[in-house]
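Figure 2 data, in text form.
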Amino acid sequence: MFFQLNIFGIVLILSSILALFVMYYSIKHNDNRIYFYLALFSLFFFFDAFFQGLDCLTTPFMFKALCGQLSSLGYIFVAPGWLLLVYCLTHNQKDLPHKYSVPVLTVSGIFLLIALSDPWTHLLFSHISLPTGVPYKLQLYYSGTWIYTLVWVYGFLLGLISIFMLLKSLITGSKSYRNSYLIALVSSIIAISLSGLALTSIYPGFSYTVSSYLVVFIFLTIAVFVYDEFDISKLVNESVISEIDVGILYFNDRDILSDMNPVCESLDFLIKIFNLMLIIFLEMRKIY
């Protein structure tokens, strides 16, 4: 039998389809740099989730091994992709400087070449076999080398850097994007915690890495489609419009008020004071 049905594999395939939709949605918002990195992260997550999902849902060894190899196009780059997205979010749509982004992506590229050449070199995995006797182990069993451990540590460190940037922005950054920072921070902490379970004896061999970024992707999807937390108007106009002495209101594409500049907030306070004084004046007229 070529296919085997299981919930985890189906969830991964469905999430990969969702990743394609998020990528398409993000590409349409090409005027927003954050959405560029969201599309990039969605692409990496698609490769990871789709091929690991096929690994779970199939039985032939060669096909499962091929899917595991192709998933490296995603799982090696999801951590750098998340770092680039977080930096852009926390630095007002700025790109990570080349002196940092080039080394980060170069190291990931080297790891990818090692992963793709692994069937011949065995640099990443010393032994690969079919899972036996463990109901939760749906994918092939991989015995990782020290390079595999290095790949995991590298992704873990990039995740910690992302958490540090989000914590700093949550404390000192723009209040307009506090919800965005909080959503990204919570998802990052959950992802790091899940990824760390790979080092424990709890369900050894389970795909904690793809599960951790599945949580991140779900949180991102909620932030984009439910709360409009990556709305470009806030990031592009905040630093300029906040200094203009005219009240300005921000509305999203559903005509819902999402923000206002400081002058408008002051006007709102003055209007409330005026209304209160008017009510007092009218009541006094009734008395006299």
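Caption note: The first strand starts at residue 125 and ends at 129.
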